[in-house]
């Protein structure tokens, strides 16, 4: 699953880091070696 649009939020289920998309460039977000989960 890749980043779709500005404003989406993602969370790492391992360490709890949260990210909000400010610019879409394609691809997926990873943290702690695993893909981050969408919070939307």
Protein described:
A three-stranded antiparallel beta sheet has the order 2-1-5, with no helix packed on it. Strands 3-4 form a two-stranded antiparallel sheet. It is an all-beta fold and 40 residues long. It is 0% helix and 30% strand. The two termini are 13 Å apart. Strand 1 and strand 2 form a beta hairpin. It has one domain: Rubrerythrin, domain 2 (Single Sheet).
Could you give a quick summary of the protein structure above?
The chain has strands spanning 9-11, 18-20, 30-31, 34-35, 37-38.
User: Would you tell me which CATH topology applies?
Assistant: Rubrerythrin, domain 2
What's the number of structural domains?
1
* Strand order across the largest sheet: 2-1-5
**Average pLDDT, all residues:** 93
Q: Main β-sheet, in a few words?
A: 3 strands, antiparallel
The topology string of helices and strands comes to EEEEE
CATH architecture: Single Sheet
Helix content: under 10%
Number of helices: 0
Give the end-to-end Cα distance, rounded to a whole number of Å.
Answer: 13 Å
> What form results from the Cα inertia axes?
globular
Alpha-beta classification:
mainly beta
Instruction: Tell me the strand percentage band.
Output: 25-35%
CATH class: Mainly Beta
State the total count of DSSP E strands. Answer: 5
Which regions have little confidence, pLDDT < 50, spanning 5+ residues?
A: none
Radius of gyration (CA) equals 9 Å
